[in-house]
Automatic annotation (TrEMBL):
It comes from Magnetospirillum gryphiswaldense (strain DSM 6361 / JCM 21280 / NBRC 15271 / MSR-1). The lineage of its organism: Bacteria, Pseudomonadati, Pseudomonadota, Alphaproteobacteria, Rhodospirillales. It is an enzyme of class 5 (isomerase). Its EC number is 5.3.1.24. CDD domains: PRAI. This is N-(5'-phosphoribosyl)anthranilate isomerase. PANTHER family: N-(5'-PHOSPHORIBOSYL)ANTHRANILATE ISOMERASE.
């Protein structure tokens, strides 16, 4: 099965070129200051100024309106990813205020966690299922941690969704097969060090996810 691919946490031109050349469908820009993949809105605009035909996704963690406004003033984002504790009410308000499609992240540790997605069905455009972060992590995502993909097997979701969490070129095909994901998102698994993307790993990941 072939899946769409989002390469997240891009911080330099070479990585962006590598992702586009390898066939990425989405480019992820992390607007969360604690992340080793953080970029300012100004830098994100500079990095993506010549990007065409690939969707740009802004990743935010409990961001306030002023910061969302600042980001969207600097560059056009096709999708806003919310990786914090944003409530359904907050997601609804952001979607109304900024008129950009929104993707809410649901952290999965067990099958029971799928119920947390339901309140977002009416207010989000998409969902992303990621692993729960390790207890002492500073980051709610981007931790190279995966979860039991079979939790998503046969899951009936009314929204389009992506799978993330600890994916690599070596495990993504199996993750897609087991979970039924039609889109996958990766950050750590295509890096040589936290925040440093590796062109060969990006190409291998996309090849594996698309079965090409
Ligand atoms: O990548 C980050 O630094 C990050 C920071 C804060 C929240 C989410 C972040 N990344 C997202 O986490 C998942 C899983 O990433 P990984 O492949 O396990 O490293 C993915 O959705 C990233 O977009």
């Amino acid at each position: 099965m072939s899946a769409e691919v989002k390469i997240c946490g891009l911080t330099d031109e070479d990585a962006i070129d590598a992702a586009i050349d390898a066939g990425a469908d989405y480019l992820g820009l992390v607007f969360f200051a604690k992340s080793p993949r953080f970029v300012t809105p100004d830098r994100a605009a500079e990095l993506t100024q010549f990007v065409e035909g690939v969707d740009k996704v802004g990743l935010f963690v409990d961001a306030e309106d002023a910061f969302l406004d600042e980001a969207l003033t600097h560059l056009r984002l096709d999708l806003l990813q919310f990786h914090g504790a944003e409530t359904p009410e907050r997601i609804d308000a952001i979607r109304r205020e900024f008129a950009v499609p929104v993707m809410k992240v649901i952290a999965i540790g067990s099958a029971e966690d799928l119920a947390k997605a339901e309140p977002y069905f009416a207010v989000a455009d998409r969902l992303l299922f990621d692993a729960k972060p390790p207890k002492n992590s500073d980051l709610p995502g981007g931790n190279a941690v995966s979860f039991d993909w079979s939790i998503l097997s046969g899951y009936k979701c009314p929204l389009q969704w992506m799978l993330a969490g600890g994916l690599t070129a070596d495990n993504v095909a199996e993750a897609i097969r087991i979970s039924g994901a039609r889109a996958v998102d990766v950050s750590s698994g295509v890096e040589s060090a936290p925040g440093v993307k590796d062109a060969a790993k990006i190409a291998a990941f996309i090849k594996a996810a698309k079965g090409t």
